[in-house]
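re: ur question from yesterday

yeah so i grabbed the chain u mentioned. its 432 aa long if i counted rite. heres the sequnce exactly as i have it in my notes:
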Amino acid sequence: MVSLHPILKKSYWALAGLGSLYAIFMFLLTNPWFQRHALYSHKLHYGFWHNVSNPESFGFAKGQVTPFHLKTSDGETLYCWHVLPLDVYLENELEVVHKSSGLVEDLTKTVGYKLLKSDPESQVVVNFHGNAGHVAQGFRTSTYRSLSSIPHTHILTCDYRGFGHSTLLNVPHIPTETGLITDGISLVTYLLTTLQHPSTRTVLLGQSLGTAVTAASALYFTCPESPYLPSIPAPANAASYAQSFAGIVLVAPFPSLPILLQTYKLFGIIPILSPLRGYPKFANYVTKRIVDLWPTQDRLSALLTASPESKTSVRLSILHARNDQDISFQLSELVYTNLEALFLGQENVVSQEERRSIHGGERVRRGAFAYRKVEDASVGDGEEGRSVELEIVRYGGHNEVVGFAQVSLAVRRAFREAELGAARFKPGLDVE
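ran it thru and got these structure tokens back, copy pasting raw so excuse formatting
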């Protein structure tokens, strides 16, 4: 037998060791407890040495952010932020600074709520962040600062149960799909009922895992009896009629968790299920044991299908960075393509597609790498209806993109189209 060179021997054992670690990791993923810890990563945050109740340390003006507690319909207490828009803050700076009080239990007793309620032009973005960390982790604060520059636009965001300072009282004492959806619905219900803010001046914004929470929450307020939603305790004082939101903006979505894991790379480097492509039986074994499926594709399809019956409008914007190393932009294209198919089988539908070639010299809408849109013809005439657009931006990666101008512009367009009608707003073209 030919002896191996010492370096080759070391390489062999290194690869064997990595393979063994991967096999152990895959085996652990079949355990629901370990799987949910890996999926939600709610314990991975630096809140131990950062005080999220001191928003000034994250670059906000004194009193611009009001941390508050929110009770969910199943008894959890969520840690949330209310961020004031800069224009409103500037006009009321002395009062805001004088009455800033840190963490509060009742947002309705704060000056921030008074400014939201008294402004007839007030708008709200409900933001749902991705997995891991807390409300102020990483690039999340840059998202809030970007959105707060939109006139009259307040931001509400929260940590899901088990994340940051939010509680985790319910069995199984670990974040679950049902639990996070309950959190999302509770936050939106709080805005619509307790804060009495209209849905027509509200945009739902989600990134990564937050897109799945956003899709489920939007579906609940259009068709709460949908079979694609889990059974959750009904929120107190919930509206008894379907809601039309100004817009729904999804950044880096995915069709479902099993589909995502086929190509997902942890930290943009470590693949999860892609090494198992050559072993379909083992891959199926692992996939069948995924406990939280997060079927965003099905929920968005149900949302668009229920919209005409409930007489609500849906303005859905999907954005994804082409250089996202965690979730491939092709998954957003897959989500859009499946939603587009719902439209193309019907009458009075308008669609368009623009894409750069390898040379990159074409005139693509908004300077994106790719742009696609499909809508009911009535939307183009300025009436209510359904509209879905996909914008593959060229930069931003997985996390940083949410604070980029493209997302802020998508939110602005949603508010503007809700107010003026799509026919009166024609976005320009850009050539690089």
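noticed a couple things. Confidence is low (pLDDT under 50) at residues 422-432. also The chain has one domain: 45-255+293-430.
anyway ttyl
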